[in-house]
Amino acid sequence: MAGKGVFEEIIDGDVYKYYADGEWKKSASGKSVPIINPTTRKTQYKVQACTQEEVNKVMEAAKAAQKSWARTPLWKRAELLHKAAAILKDHRASIAECLVKEIAKPAKDAVTEVVRSGDLVSYTAEEGVRILGEGKFLVSDSFPGNERTKYCLSSKIPLGVVLAIPPFNYPVNLAVSKIAPALIAGNSLVLKPPTQGAVSALHMIYCFHLAGFPKGLISCVTGKGSEIGDFLTMHPGVNCISFTGGDTGIAISKKAGMIPLQMELGGKDACIVLEDADLDLTAANIVKGGFSYSGQRCTAVKVVLVMESVADALVDKVKAKVAKLTVGSPEEDCDITPVVTESSANFIEGLVMDAKEKGATFCQEYRREGNLIWPLLLDHVRPDMRIAWEEPFGPVLPVMRINSVEEGIHHCNASNFGLQGCVFTRDINKALMISDAMETGTVQINSAPARGPDHFPFQGLKDSGIGSQGITNSINMMTKIKSTVINLPSPSYTMG
Ligand code: G3H
């Protein structure tokens, strides 16, 4: 149970503590931040409203702990990560319960998120041992004008303190996807969880605490973005930021110092459907891709671009599947659950009303109760409608009919986003050509967009972000190259 049993240490009264210097603490601010349950729209949990002074202390501790962590053998770092992964999986039920209450994630998906996170941590430990255990050896005489008098040995060293800021939709998984690579690479880690999702994140951090990482190496500060958001991202003690979220990332990138940034800032993933597509497979993927977790995924299918000749048939198949989606509470594991906040629901409704005024065809009646929005397919969407371009982050999916593949590619590439896209066709040659033409970080052929498996590279072009994620890329991104050059008095191949 959340905040009970082994987790009792992390709660004081009804307010969850923050984690600093290996201890669970109350903020000196005496203030807390409420977390509203999207389903009941009542306060479910409260977390500490940390102060800037507390952030300063966390940064000092992180810096000190990192120095000795970087000297801890790689295999020992991996061992602790494996331990944390196992503890995390053991406590999947309690953590999943928080995900259900804080972000209305359907019960089964919530458990999957925690298990996936444990697997991600273990895989990262293994990958780190492999790739960080290798370096490069160069000799000087391959460059013009040089004899073989220099041997260069290069290896990967940590950056220092990594600041991790995950989003509400995967507060555990997109936290560990930053924490594990940072730690295996020898960095310390400061986590600023999203408000909605903070309690799930604190439970997850407690699992790392139980695993026995050194004091100060991992911290988790909670609070208002207005008080500690900019303070954290502009803090001189931070050596790298890994952020997943919305346009705030663009603002962070303008304010952050000369440090590596890894950012994933959303997408408007297009699904291009050709005449020869397997329409049953396509419809199944559109429904899974567009409506899983009520469309609150960066990688959700966010616009269907279908050839006019098969559009009626495809829309009918999608409509039939949408009719089967269950709508209700996350506790009952419904497919469609309330969206995260009332303001998100209002934003989604604004997009729907705009499409209505401009003449989109509603395949279902629009229905909303509180934060719960029934799944909606909008047909005959045109480029003058906001929903053609903006990401609803909700269970509303626009369909645009196209008369040529070029028209589809043009719409996809005119977006300011470029995260993923997908194409459905039986012609692999066409699929590859379309993939090359789509300006997105990934193109899926005959499947909906998705980040996983978690060791695959994951990146966005344009406003969708910078840097590449996925386990190997994240480890590499959280290191820098250090070289040692051995200078010989004479070329090494002259003896004998
Ligand atoms: O929301 C952004 C996530 O990176 C999407 O991950 O494809 O596993 O749902 P997912």
From TrEMBL:
Family: Belongs to the aldehyde dehydrogenase family.
GO cellular component annotations of the record: cytoplasm
Domain Aldehyde dehydrogenase: 24-483
Catalytic activity: D-glyceraldehyde 3-phosphate + NADP(+) + H2O = (2R)-3-phosphoglycerate + NADPH + 2 H(+)
Protein known as: NADP-dependent glyceraldehyde-3-phosphate dehydrogenase
Enzyme Commission number(s): 1.2.1.9
Location of the protein in the cell: Cytoplasm
